[in-house]
Amino acid sequence: MAGNHMIRFRVNKEQFDRIRSDAFTSGYLTPSAYMRDLALNRNLICLDIKVSELCKDIKRVKEVLCNG
User: Fold this and answer.
1) How far is CA 67 from the centre of its chain?
2) Burial 50-64 (b: 16+ CB within 10 A, else e)
3) Where are the domains of the chain?
4) pTM of this prediction exceeds 0.70
5) Which residue in 16, 17, 23, 53 is deepest, having the highest Cβ count within 10 Å?
6) What distance in Å separates the CA atoms of residue 34 and residue 20, rounded to the nearest whole number?
7) Alpha-carbon dihedral angle through residues 6, 26, 44, 52, given to the nearest 10 degrees
8) Which residues contact 22 (CB under 8 A, 6 or more apart)?
9) What span, in angstroms and rounded, lies between the C-alpha atoms of 47 and 53?
């Protein structure tokens, strides 16, 4: 299997310039590395939020079962 896969999306000139500027300002050598980290970190943040919500739900169910 290939080691690289490509995801493509369209942006206008202003959006591309901002992405490139943000990437270099953040210390990335390429806009693609910046976008990859943004996408992966966003997924981790969403996953962390979901796990936290699930833990709260489990605690509520446990309290109901133990008290009821």
Assistant:
1) 38
2) eeeeeeeeeeeeeee
3) 13-67
4) no
5) 23
6) 9
7) -160
8) 34
9) 10
